[in-house]
């Protein structure tokens, strides 16, 4: 495992988080553990926006194929977007959310629909 930027390098043969301690009188080296400071990744909502032209069936297909919703859930989310203007398809890490947006936009344009798909910090 590579050394982390805010942690001292891990000497060979010692566990991560161990820092060289003091030498006891008998030569025993005491290692002190430094708590790891990894933050959980930020999460992003992927949303679909309503428009007047994209067929409802296409939106339901998108929610099933790209966001793995079942037919009932996909239909409910599509109707919520239709009535309220926007709706959450799922919550992902940044790279996954960005990839979903690109895939949905590409499929929509290929099918000739103006469907808009965006991501927002959750
Ligand atoms: N409003 C569209 C229609 O009446 C359906 C639709 C729903 C479009 C959700 C986009 O994100 C959307 N055909």
From TrEMBL:
Signal peptide: none
Gene Ontology MF term list: peptidase activity
Keywords assigned: Hydrolase, Protease
Domain of life: Bacteria
Biological process annotations from GO: proteolysis
Composition bias type Pro residues, residue spans: 1-18
Function: Involved in the modulation of the specificity of the ClpAP-mediated ATP-dependent protein degradation.
Classification via PANTHER family: ATP-DEPENDENT CLP PROTEASE ADAPTER PROTEIN CLPS, ATP-DEPENDENT CLP PROTEASE ADAPTER PROTEIN CLPS1, CHLOROPLASTIC
Protein name (database record): ATP-dependent Clp protease adapter protein ClpS
Gene field: clpS
